Protein: LacI family DNA-binding transcriptional regulator
Amino acid sequence: MATIKDIAEQANVSSATVSRVLNNDLSLSVSDETRDRIFLVAEEIGYKPSRVKRLKKENELSNKQIGLLLWISSDDEKEDPYFSSVRLSVEKRCEELGIAIGKVVRGNNVDPSAFHQMDGLIVVGSVDMEDIEKIYPNRAAVVLVNHLLNNSNYDSVKLDFQQAVEDVLGHLFHLGHQKIGMIGGFEYVYKLGPNKKGPTAVDIRQLHFERVMKDKGWYNPEYMYTGEWNTASGYELMKEMLGKSDRPTACFISNDPMAIGALRALHENGVDVPSEMAIIGFDDIDVSAYVNPPLTSVKVFPEQIGRSAVQLLVERFEGREPVLHVTIGTSLVVRESCGGKK
Structure:
């Protein structure tokens, strides 16, 4: 049976060095060449094959560095914690795997050389594809997260917006609603420069909302409102909706911060929720369960989104060639803001 001493003799290093390398001791000061030689000898003489294979993989990952590019600012993250949850999940999973995050960059005035030394890049949010290629031309080592536009050349992770919207509307239909409105946000494909906002794109939730409502024959463009992705905008848009003589009996709102602002407007105008207007949000952020009334919302899983993005990069490091697109499901969490039970 092969031993550590056998490996040490053939690799021309001490047994202590072999032991520390095979235990993935990253504090050990030893060259990559020596580490590779130790693993090669261990494999050749059959030293605990399954363990050596696993340790070799861990060692290879520990030498990787990835970049993380986010279009959203730190202040925007505070407004909508969904994006901070995705970022933290990426960072946590990298830490678990021993992968270093070499750069975390937000979208304004990105140095074109910022990611050149990285082994991979995760892009969170919709960034102009030409700009991405300028800063990181290796398509096979880029993962797009929550990118608005489908791009078959890149690995990607996205939410199942179609099923989410169908769940929302199916629940409202079940409760007897036909006059259903929507409050959403302007979507942009962001540029990596001083002129941050690039071309606009339609919110995927809105596209599916319109499709389902038109199939039912209940779509009313007068019930559609669009603004910024924040609480103040949700408040103002709901006030605008309430100012019309014809208003919907239910409203789907594209994120929870906007929905919380809308609830404030409803309270100020004496509109009872849910008997006069049912409300459903999106993201199911922590505070949604504690507003008055507690907000029904589409629960997303940002932790899984972040982990999946890292996993796609790891598979690329291990040699996967075909492009993969991962779709993460959602779940409708029913609370008092829409009435009824799921």
Q: What stands out?
A: The chain has a mean pLDDT of 87. The longest strand covers residues 100-106. Residues 81-97 form the longest helix (17 residues). The chain has three domains: 4-62, 65-159+303-328, 161-300.
